Amino acid sequence: MTQFALAELLTECIVKILALDTTSGACSVALYSGGQVCEQFVRAERDHTRRLLPMVDQVLADSGLSLSQLDALAVSRGPGSFTGLRIAISFTQGLAFAADKPVVPVSSLAALAAGARRSHPEWGDSPIVAMLDARMQQVYWGIYSAGAPHDSLLAEAVQDPDRVVQSLRESDLPQPAYGAGPGWHYPEFVDAPVAQCDMDTPIHAREIAELALPLWQNGAAVAAEELEPLYLRDEVTWQKRQKIRSK
């Protein structure tokens, strides 16, 4: 086998995943290929739809790959902004249909925690409580360990801040624990059992791509038409409607 043929074979064996995120106040696209990540990231509350395609084209060009050479796409499935989730998921579905590729849905809270762990190596393997603002005086939140970065130690939920604090106190959360994400801005969290909190931690597509790799290897990818966002808000909305009707 020639060196060229061997290099071509090794390239084909390397897993290549394109990831997208518009869950919160940022827009990012990343391509994972053989342990290397190429990412485009911009903080932007608006214009996600206009920004995504040029960012995808750029990371593909920088990586020297085409859409057809990918193994899968990955996207944050939520929870998060309703509009942001729909933009990322619809755009990912379009790419997946065009290239006939599967999609790996990744928790946006898990990606937030993974990004915080990368930004704060001093936090070590301590659990990270990831939190996004759900509006309506509520937050989306979950707790992630270094050993199981995909699965929250408590089920991901949308709750009032005071209920979150109560849940954290009752959970016997290993200490020290840390907080990450913009949802931590509520004053009720001053008494939360965390040693430090970084409210400026954004969600990056690079973490979505890296978290997607073992999920893809374990068969967690879905067809584009099966991709659905996770809002966590449906039950809460239904309960509020029931309360209004009962008055």
Automatic annotation (TrEMBL):
Belongs to the KAE1 / TsaD family. TsaB subfamily. InterPro entries: ATPase_NBD (IPR043129), Gcp-like_dom (IPR000905), T6A_TsaB (IPR022496). It is found in: Cytoplasm. Pfam families: TsaD. Gene3D superfamilies: 3.30.420.40. Keywords: Cytoplasm, tRNA processing. It comes from the Bacteria. The keyword Cytoplasm applies. The keyword DNA-binding does not apply. Residues 44-165 form the Gcp-like domain. This is tRNA threonylcarbamoyladenosine biosynthesis protein TsaB. One of its GO terms (cellular component) is cytosol. One of its GO terms (biological process) is tRNA threonylcarbamoyladenosine modification.
